[in-house]
């Protein structure tokens, strides 16, 4: 091909569809605008996708709230508590809503006092002259009690209880009912395995009677503390639900504000487009560029 032919070909390739000549600078600007628009549309698609996910989350939240019959809000007091349920960033939840302390890992101060009092009852039983046979685990092999584990499903002894009461690593008793249940189990095991006329049955029954008498004296305090804990846990759940609703309402407002923002710029106009419109526009640009 001659140099003149090459020049003609280059000139033809640089013409616009209507036949008018286009400079290399204008051609480059056109490509730059297409790439910029593609990037802009890509960003808008991501924003719309995020907004749709947020709307879906809001729909699910309020649908579940409606199915539960409302929030049942109550006034909140001041304080601190742990978060439960759905996880949110700390900055999203006002501390006012997290006001009731709920700690599943350690007993409250009042429960600790009740456990201390029961500990005194337990020590009195340990000092009784009949406590000896119940101090350690039953020597099943030494006494050749081949059927013991078939009859007794949960063995228990005083030293096991005492050691657990003294645990400091979180594996100890969480409330007084757990201790009471284990102490009672020591006696009921002995009474279950041994006949009524057996000396171990008689001793266990007598000590169980002492335990029950002392437990009845302590029970009003136990019931009062359990009532307080139940109220605190209920209040914590209510406060957490209020906090969730506040976050969701803020998210709904932000989403609505973002969707309603419009201006005369291409970016503003694209906010009103559906995902289908955006993808269609992208396909047209790509098709035009490939042609």
Automatic annotation (TrEMBL):
Coiled-coil region(s): none
Region entry Disordered, spans: 1-32
Composition bias, kind Acidic residues: at what positions?
A: 1-10
Q: What protein name is recorded for this chain?
A: Bromo domain-containing protein
The beginning of the lineage is: Eukaryota, Viridiplantae, Streptophyta, Embryophyta, Tracheophyta
**PANTHER family attached to this UniProt entry:** OSJNBA0053K19.4 PROTEIN (PTHR45926)
The UniProt keyword set, sorted, is: Bromodomain
> Pfam families this protein is in?
Bromodomain
* Gene source species: Dioscorea zingiberensis
Against InterPro entries, the record matches this protein to: Bromodomain, Bromodomain-like_sf
Q: Where is the Bromo domain?
A: 126-201
């Amino acid at each position: 091909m001659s140099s003149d032919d090459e020049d003609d070909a280059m000139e033809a390739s640089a013409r616009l569809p209507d036949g008018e000549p286009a400079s290399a600078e204008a051609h480059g600007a056109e490509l730059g605008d297409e790439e910029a628009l593609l990037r802009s549309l890509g960003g808008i698609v991501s924003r719309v996708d995020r907004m749709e996910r947020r709307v879906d989350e809001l729909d699910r939240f309020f649908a579940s709230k409606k199915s539960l019959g409302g929030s049942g809000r109550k006034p909140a007091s001041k304080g601190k508590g742990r978060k439960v349920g759905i996880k949110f960033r700390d900055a999203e939840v006002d501390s006012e809503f997290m006001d009731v302390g709920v700690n599943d890992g350690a007993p409250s101060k009042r429960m600790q006092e009740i456990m201390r009092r029961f500990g005194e009852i337990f020590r009195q039983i340990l000092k009784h002259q009949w406590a000896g046979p119940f101090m350690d685990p039953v020597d099943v092999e030494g006494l050749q009690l081949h059927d013991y584990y078939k009859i007794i499903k949960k063995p228990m002894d005083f030293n096991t209880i005492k050691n657990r009461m003294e645990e400091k690593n979180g594996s100890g008793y969480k409330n007084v009912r757990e201790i009471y249940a284990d102490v009672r189990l020591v006696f009921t095991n002995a009474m279950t395995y041994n006949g009524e006329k057996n000396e171990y049955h008689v001793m266990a029954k007598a000590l169980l009677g002492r335990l029950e008498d002392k437990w009845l004296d302590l029970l009003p305090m136990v019931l009062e503390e359990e009532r307080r804990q139940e109220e605190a846990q209920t209040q914590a759940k209510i406060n957490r639900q209020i906090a969730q609703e506040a976050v969701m309402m803020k998210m709904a407002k932000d989403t609505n504000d973002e969707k309603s923002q419009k201006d005369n710029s291409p970016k503003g106009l694209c906010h009103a487009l559906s995902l289908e419109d955006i993808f269609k526009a992208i396909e047209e640009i790509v098709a035009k560029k490939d042609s």
